[in-house]
Amino acid sequence: MLQYVIFASVFFASFIGMEFLARIMHKYLMHGFLWKLHEDHHKNEQKELEKNDLFGLIFAIIAIILIFKGLFSSNYVFLSIGLGMTGYGIAYFFIHDMIIHNRHLHLRSWGLRHEPFRTLILTHDVHHSEGKGNWGFLIAIKGIDKIPKNQEEKN
């Protein structure tokens, strides 16, 4: 029973840890020397496929390797990390791409009507308008992120 608690803890720690790893990568790599891969993500018109999607592909490959390593070596810590990364990737795809950036299923207008998605959208809009700060993708953190006080509807 304890091993399942450990594996679940590793899964959730990996999921949450990915947000903080993504924040660091977003600030120092994506807005640094990897800007050429990330810049299309900052254009006003979002496309179904962007160079920026390569970051998700890289993390997906790492997660797949960890999942297979965990399965074939019976090392369920690797499996739990890979599944946590995969869970984060799925959440990123739905929340960041579909709700915040209105890609694929175009759920931004729905997100603007529902908290906490509304706060995430408006907080991320600050990042895109200022080109700095608010480095997170799935969580707006008071005191770290610039969360707009003006909650007027934006599209």
UniProtKB/TrEMBL annotation:
UniProt-recorded Gene Ontology molecular function terms: beta-carotene 3-hydroxylase activity; iron ion binding
The keyword Transmembrane appears for this protein: yes
Organism of derivation: Acidianus manzaensis
UniProt KW keywords: Carotenoid biosynthesis, Membrane, Oxidoreductase, Transmembrane, Transmembrane helix
Protein name per Swiss-Prot or TrEMBL: Porin
Entry's family note: Belongs to the sterol desaturase family.
Superkingdom of this protein's organism: Archaea
UniProt-listed GO biological process terms: carotene metabolic process; xanthophyll biosynthetic process
Fatty acid hydroxylase domain: residues covered: 12-141
InterPro entries the record matches: BETA-OHASE-like (IPR045019), Fatty_acid_hydroxylase (IPR006694)
Keyword Signal: no
Transmembrane segments: 6-26, 54-72, 78-95
